[in-house]
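Task 17 of the worksheet. Students: predict the tertiary structure of the chain below and write it out as structure tokens. Keep your answer in the requested format; marks are given for formatting as well as content.
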Amino acid sequence: MMFAKRAELLLKLKKPCACIADCNAALKINPDSGKAYRVRGKAHRLLGHWEQAHQDLAESQKLDFDDDTAELQKLVDSKYKKIAERKNQERLRSEQRKEKERRRRKEEAQRAYEEAKKQPSPGAGYGGFPGGGFPGGFPGMPGGMPGGMPGMPGIDSSMLSGIMSDPELMQAFSDPKMAAAMQDIMSNPGNIAKYQNDPDVMNLINKVMGAFSKFGGGMPGGMPGGMPGGFGAAGGGSGSAGASAGPTVEEVPEATNVDEVD
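Model answer:
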């Protein structure tokens, strides 16, 4: 009781901090001292500590109700409610800012994802041969046909889809030898002369040209002068010009008279 009485005197002397110190000492001795809570609440009110004043006065009224304190409590409660409302509004604004920032980041991530889906992955597009070549999915041809195959523009996706749907062609491309030969020829059409005596490679070229003829009217302007050895006609796209270009094998006339033979 001594600390509580001294705290009350200090409050009258307008020394709220010393008053609060004595009230704390009194409450350590007797935690149920309503007078100590009441005096400390009044001291907090003088300091403008409205939240602490609200708590102490409410506790003092529960332990020891006082009519005079009830009027003071109304004033403190009105201040406390305004402070609580302001803090609540600040909390809501902070949450709204965080939610807005979260949505903004989510939208940016979604836009980046959509743009990434629209971007063709390296080596994945048909690209009309130049710049893209055959897609990397051709078995046995790592990385696809070489990018920018010279002289092979204008190949659309329907042509390539048709070629890739042909099981015989796909099986041939899975052979490393055939894949290397086609890669060599596509990088330089003139290299076809190296394979004229290889029936397997020439047969594959015939099949490829036949596929182009079926889906798009022949090899698209890529093999200058057509394929040697008459393969330009098989492609259907080079015509007579294709037959006249490239190395050809001169035909040997058959002997018509037995007497001419020694």
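Marker's comment: Residues 157-244 form one domain. The longest helix spans residues 67-118.
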